[in-house]
Design brief:
By secondary structure, this protein is α/β, with parallel strands linked by helices. The protein has one domain: Alkaline Phosphatase, subunit A. It contains 14 helices and 17 strands. The protein starts with 11 loop residues before the first helix and ends with a helix.
């Protein structure tokens, strides 16, 4: 029996079988094709970040990191607001961050620190859904299970609207997922009624990703060709009966064969080919290894990579002695959890990633985003209904901070402001819809693009307005 919150391991054969099975399912239940309407509009072409990025790396710090204890500290507020941590100076004059981010503090001038994110969805399932789809869930502030009619995850939308110019059979990959909110995979990670070929490659635990593509010995070309001939004969029979699923099935077959033909991609999944110094720099934990794998996927040609920095929003409740399960949902024990586990790993991973991307020349045309689904409340207090022995902070979507870098973004800029307790945004307010409109615009995708899914439903590729201040610096 599979235990809640845990995934049964998938071997290489099972992984490829999932690709083919996805195609059969899509063909038999969603046999129509999807269409795209709309070209880059004049109104967005003058957006300062328009078409500046060739790829995007989205780092999702799920669980709601406390902005007040990290990037938007309030040292002059009362102790019950400011918390237990002190601040340190960064490489940006006058800007200070948490004392437990010493590596990040030296690289802060590589980022745009945006302190004005805000919305009104106060629970993980639907707030993560909002961040991953750019749309509010009908059941706001809850933890609903995924549904077939959920909007598609934005990485799948990108795959649908942007032509894949790489030899890889997909345009997006999810690393260190699926995201558990908090026990089961939450909504917002699927493709809804988009064609099966838009599904992001789900690579799971970055320490195990390479095993899904591991070949004990190369498959002889004669065997591969024989399989293609046999499947082709079967498809000819299916076409005689006008089976509408054949086209989608063909696409999935093609993707599976492309994976077999891409040793470079399989090699990209094997982080053990990195030198010992690089592995040590990123860290021997899922957060660091996920960031390293994200960089390797970008280099392998994947234009959209989502890395879940932690695969569970609050796994520490059930796994208090397993740091890999810790998420940013720190209702109680916030200062111990952040000091001992979350901040050291984040500091190591994010700084190693930025240095690595810069040294490899990838930052100039890669948009890097690091965001959670919301922040934490401007009051330290214990909550009886949650595990832990010391106080923490509640969810707080009204104000939180995110990071952006690369693709021409104004480096060393600190944009937006919250009030003296960090509870309300005072300037430059934006929400996750605007965040994703910014990402799509930077990739040269008109946010007003219309998509018709396989059931004939038409919807906009994205909602929201692009955030131009990231490039202007104010």
């Amino acid at each position: 029996m599979q235990m809640p919150g845990r995934r049964l391991p998938v071997d290489r054969r099972g992984f490829f079988a999932q690709w083919v099975a996805t195609g059969i399912f899509a063909g038999s239940t969603c046999s129509g094709s999807s269409e795209i309407k709309g070209a880059p509009a004049q109104g967005v072409s003058n957006f300062p970040g328009w078409n500046r990025a060739k790829r995007v790396l989205f780092l999702f710090a799920s669980g709601g990191p406390s902005h007040i204890d990290t990037l938007d500290m309030k040292p002059d507020a009362p102790k019950e607001v400011r918390g237990a941590f002190s601040s340190i100076q960064t490489s940006i004059p006058g800007y200070r961050v948490c004392e437990h981010l010493p590596l990040f503090s030296k690289l802060a001038d590589k980022f745009c620190i945006f302190r004005s994110m805000s919305h009104d969805d106060a629970d993980h399932g639907t707030a993560c859904f909002l961040t991953l789809t750019g749309r509010f869930h009908p059941q706001k502030s809850g933890n609903p299970p995924p549904r077939p009619d959920d909007p598609p995850t934005l990485s799948a939308v990108y795959s649908r609207v942007k032509t894949n110019s790489t030899p890889l059979p997909f345009s997006a990959a999810h690393v260190n997922g699926p995201l558990l909110t908090p026990i089961e995979p939450g909504p917002g990670q699927g493709i809804a009624q988009l064609p099966g070929w838009t599904r992001p490659a789900d690579l799971g635990n970055p320490f195990e990703s390479a095993q899904k593509f591991h070949l004990n010995s190369p498959i002889p070309s004669v065997r591969v060709d024989g399989r293609r001939i046999l499947l082709g004969q079967i498809d000819q029979l299916r076409r005689r009966y006008d089976d509408p699923g054949v086209l989608t099935f063909d696409q999935q077959q093609s993707r599976a064969y492309q994976l077999l033909d891409q040793p470079g991609f399989r090699n990209a999944l094997d982080c053990q080919t990195e030198d010992a110094a690089t592995l040590s720099r990123f860290g021997n934990h899922r957060m660091g290894r996920g960031c390293l794998l994200g960089r390797r996927l970008l280099e392998a040609g994947v234009p959209w990579v989502t890395v879940f920095l932690n695969h569970s929003v609050r796994g520490q409740d059930d796994h208090p002695n397993e740091p890999e399960w810790y998420g940013w949902d720190t209702h109680n024990d916030i200062f111990q959890s952040m000091r001992d586990v979350l901040l050291p790993r984040f500091d190591q991973a994010i700084s190693a990633l930025m240095e690595d991307l810069g040294q490899r020349g990838l930052l100039k045309d890669t948009l890097v985003i690091c965001a959670g689904e919301f922040g934490r409340a401007p009051l330290v207090a214990a909550e009886r209904t949650f595990a832990g022995t010391s106080p923490g902070r509640k969810h707080w979507p009204a104000a939180y901070t995110i990071l952006a870098a690369g693709a021409g973004i104004s480096q060393g800029s600190v944009i937006g402001q919250t009030d003296r307790h960090g509870g309300q945004v005072l300037s430059n307010r934006a929400n996750p819809k605007d965040l994703m409109a910014t990402v799509f615009s930077s990739l040269g995708v008109n946010p007003e693009t219309r998509i018709t899914d396989t059931l004939g439903k038409e919807f906009s590729a994205i909602e929201g307005m692009p955030i131009g201040s990231w490039w202007s610096g104010a």
